[in-house]
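During the no-cost extension, the postdoctoral fellow (Dr. R.K.) reprocessed legacy sequence entries with the updated structure-token encoder. One reprocessed record is reproduced below for audit purposes.
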Amino acid sequence: MRQRPAAIETLSDATTVDEDTGAVRSVQRADLMIDRDALEGIWSATYLERLARSYWRFLARVTLGLIRVRYGEESRSVVLIARPLRLLTFHAPEYEVGAARGLVRWRIARGVLVAKRGRGRGYLQIEVSRGPDDGGPRLPLHVEVEVANFYPAIASGLSLRLYNITQSRIHVIVTYGFLRSLVRRDLPRSRVGRFAAAQSPD
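Re-encoded structure tokens follow.
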């Protein structure tokens, strides 16, 4: 049987709430083993941007199109069906790419899901890092999806317990689904194409 070019080894979740401020930090992690040639072929700013795009596409697909992303020159908005219902609005993404680590971060601006005191304070990010190279045909790749310093409106307006059993739980389930989907290495072209000049013609 032909071995798949990537395989997920572990999934984990760490979600905490700061008792003093009410800020939420939620991190979902996955460890993958990926063919050396496959990883080398996608380790670039272009594919980091495509990874970011794949996250938003997965979110739209898993919600059957009810949740969509609207792109502006300096913002990204997660909307429920239409633009007026902005669940979350982010500033334009920031990218960091190095020899062993890549990161894309969206700083949270505002939105229905964000408490007033949390506007402009938190962020969502996806980070990928290469593990130690043992010389084998596959390389370890660590992926983290993190929401940090997030102040959920539902916790402020209603209760933290309600947030934990609804919005927080849904976020973890969806993120696990996204991390599992990465074994397919189906990374769509970016809608914005910030690094389009470096894209290969595949």
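The chain has a mean pLDDT of 89. The first helix runs from residue 36 to 42. The remaining legacy entries will be reprocessed before the final report is submitted.
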